[in-house]
Write a structure and sequence with these properties.
The complex is a heterodimer of chains A (161) and B (85).
Chain A: E1 6-16, E2 21-26, E3 31-42, E4 50-61, E5 64-67, E6 74-76, E7 87-88, E8 94-99, E9 102-113, E10 118-121, E11 128-130, E12 135-140, E13 147-159
Antiparallel strand pairs in A: 1-6, 1-13, 2-8, 2-12, 3-10, 3-11, 3-13, 4-9, 4-12, 5-8
Chain B: E1 3-6, E2 15-26, E3 29-40, E4 51-52, H1 55-63, E5 79-82
The chains are: A mainly beta (161), B mainly beta (85).
């Protein structure tokens, strides 16, 4: 394990009904990031439905997203953390894809019932590192039923400064 | 190269602070929350600021069309500067 500040990239309630990127994170240039936890849930539908989703995948070309806003989508785990080094932008860190870019390695996949959602908590040995300027994301691999959906991607920055 | 936003007073954009959060419901069903945020310019050097992937991303942030983020007034006089990162 490394020592470094932790952050959460969060999609806090967006209607999603297609197989799209829910949240995308582009690491900064000052250090790699390690992924600590990833979750996908919904909060508006009581109908059972079974899906597969990528709780973590690597992008070889960024999806087009709504740029993340600090304080809304990109949160400090602790108020004393420094400002995140993540790159913000429509082809960088943001939420809710409108164009999918190119998916690379799909690292963590879960099949789950929509009533429960899915959560992946990495053990220390399996925390996945994303290199400087690397891009990772959470994505529904099939179109889910229309619902207000939430996601969280917790990560640590292994920054030099 | 990445980009940062600098205020007329000299500080760089480093965060948005939530000043109020409301629960949003539709027909009595919880659908999410929305927050009022204000930008803070407390970074005294670009290294400590929020970085934007492209100049266009930073300019969009300055345009700040979202009234929940203080509207354009919150970024009045701000400029975009490149960094070497």
């Amino acid at each position: 394990m490394f020592i470094g500040p932790c952050y959460i990239l969060k999609n806090n309630g967006v209607s999603i009904s297609t197989a799209i990127t829910v949240a995308q994170l582009k690491a900064g240039t000052n250090g790699a990031i390690e992924i600590l936890r990833s979750s996908l849930t919904q909060g508006s539908v009581a109908t059972s439905a079974q899906y597969a989703a990528a709780l973590l995948l690597k992008k070889t070309a960024a999806a087009t997203v709504t740029a993340a806003t600090a304080g809304t989508h990109l949160l400090k785990q602790n108020a004393v953390n420094p400002t995140s080094d993540a790159s913000l932008g429509t082809s960088a860190t943001g939420i809710t894809g409108t164009a999918e870019g190119t998916d690379g390695e799909i690292t963590i996949t879960r099949g789950f019932n929509d009533l429960n959602g899915a959560e992946w908590l990495a053990t220390p040995e399996e925390r996945i590192l994303i290199a400087q300027s690397g891009i990772c994301a959470q994505k529904y691999l099939v179109a889910p039923q229309s619902a207000t959906r939430y996601s969280e991607l917790a990560f640590r920055e292994l920054r030099a400064s | 190269m990445r980009y940062v936003i600098r205020s007329p007073e000299g500080g760089y954009l480093n965060d948005f602070v939530v000043v109020r959060t409301r629960t949003v419901t539709l027909n009595g069903t919880y659908v999410g929350t929305e927050s009022d945020l204000h930008p803070t310019f407390k970074a005294n050097e670009p290294r400590l600021a929020l970085k934007f992937d492209t100049e266009a991303d930073a300019l969009t942030r300055i345009a700040n069309v979202d009234p929940l983020h203080g509207g354009p007034e919150a970024f009045k006089g701000c400029t975009v500067e490149p960094t070497e990162e």
